[in-house]
């Protein structure tokens, strides 16, 4: 039987609106979920024919082993990654098992921030100046090159976790103390002052079939660092605002540059006071 496979971390209760649409699809539905989901409310009944639990939803070896067993009795046609932190492992699994959808190279392009920004720049898309750093020496060199203020964030980070705005040497020294406890590759990026927008899209067979442009009430770092409320204002699709049309066009350029052909997409953009748009 044709099967659709879902990868979900322990926060499955936040996906219920998405799961409500599953009944429309005449396919067997299998869930692979991360251990600890019971603490967040458990798996709601009636959505999945089979459920498998793994210790780490981002672990390629663990997921590969489960899918190998599932393929003995299932014709897996789709593999859905429901959160940003499992996009890359899902791409690896699709390539490994020949499942349609975003492949390993495409997933790397949207998850590795250095590769993503460099691909955008190579296609003429404005992006903040950035450097990649994996050692303390490289971080110090990047800090000097980019200059204060700047942003430091993990190469494959998500949801603004471990993202820092560095204003001066004192903040940088404090960051280094924390970073040295668990070193990982980081992107050091020029800080862009401006309004922050997010654009959410659906791409089907290379065509952008849906686009929604929204403006954050406060930028994501202010939400994390200064306890500002998280929220955004969505512009109607019929908006006559010329900036909305420019943002939609800019978003289409990003999608083409990153080789996205069939996926849902989320892009964050900055608009400066002089109207320049940057890929965030």
Please tell me about this protein's structure.
With 280 residues, this protein is of the alpha+beta class. Helices cover 31% and strands 28% of the residues. It has nine helices and 13 strands. The chain has helices at residues 16-19, 60-70, 87-97, 104-111, 113-122, 136-146, 169-179, 220-225, 242-257; strands at 2-8, 28-34, 50-54, 75-81, 130-133, 150-154, 164-166, 186-190, 195-204, 207-216, 232-234, 263-271, 277-279. It has a five-stranded antiparallel sheet, covered by helices on one side. A four-stranded parallel sheet has the order 3-2-1-4. A four-stranded antiparallel sheet has the order 5-8-6-7, sandwiched between helices. Strand 1 (2-8), helix 1 and strand 2 form a beta-alpha-beta unit. Helix 3 packs antiparallel against helix 4 and helix 4 packs across helix 5 (113-122). The longest helix is centred in the last third of the chain and has 16 residues, at 242-257. It is globular, with a radius of gyration of 20 Å. The model has no long low-confidence stretch (mean pLDDT 92).
Write the layout of secondary structure elements.
Layout: E1 2-8, H1 16-19, E2 28-34, E3 50-54, H2 60-70, E4 75-81, H3 87-97, H4 104-111, H5 113-122, E5 130-133, H6 136-146, E6 150-154, E7 164-166, H7 169-179, E8 186-190, E9 195-204, E10 207-216, H8 220-225, E11 232-234, H9 242-257, E12 263-271, E13 277-279
Parallel strand pairs: 1-2, 1-4, 2-3
Antiparallel strand pairs: 5-8, 6-7, 6-8, 9-10, 9-12, 10-11, 12-13
Helix pairs in contact: 3-4, 4-5
């Amino acid at each position: 039987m044709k099967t659709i496979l879902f990868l979900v971390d322990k926060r499955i209760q936040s996906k219920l609106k998405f799961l409500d649409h599953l009944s429309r699809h005449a396919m067997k539905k299998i869930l692979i979920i991360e251990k600890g989901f019971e603490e967040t409310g458990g798996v709601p009944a009636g959505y999945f024919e089979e459920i498998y639990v793994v210790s780490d939803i981002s672990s390629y070896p663990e997921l590969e082993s489960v899918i190998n067993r599932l393929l003995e009795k299932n014709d897996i046609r789709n593999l859905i990654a429901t959160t940003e932190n499992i996009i890359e492992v899902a791409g690896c699994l699709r390539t490994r098992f020949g499942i349609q959808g975003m492949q390993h190279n495409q997933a790397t392009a949207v998850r590795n921030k250095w590769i993503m920004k460099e691909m955008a720049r190579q296609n003429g898309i404005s992006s903040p100046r950035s450097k990649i750093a994996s050692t303390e020496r490289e971080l110090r060199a990047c800090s000097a090159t980019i200059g204060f203020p700047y942003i430091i964030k993990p190469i494959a980070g998500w949801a603004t976790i471990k993202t820092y705005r560095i204003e001066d040497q004192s903040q940088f020294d404090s960051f280094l103390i924390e970073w040295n406890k668990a070193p990982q590759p980081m992107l050091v990026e020029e800080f862009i002052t401006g309004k922050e927008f997010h654009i959410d899209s659906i791409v089907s067979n290379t065509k952008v079939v849906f686009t929604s442009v929204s403006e954050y009430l406060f930028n994501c770092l202010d939400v994390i660092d200064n306890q500002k409320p998280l929220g955004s204002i969505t512009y109607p699709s019929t908006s006559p605002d010329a900036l909305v049309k420019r943002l939609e066009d800019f978003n289409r350029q990003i999608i083409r540059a990153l080789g996205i052909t069939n996926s849902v997409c989320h892009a964050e953009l900055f608009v400066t006071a002089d109207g320049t748009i940057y890929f965030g």
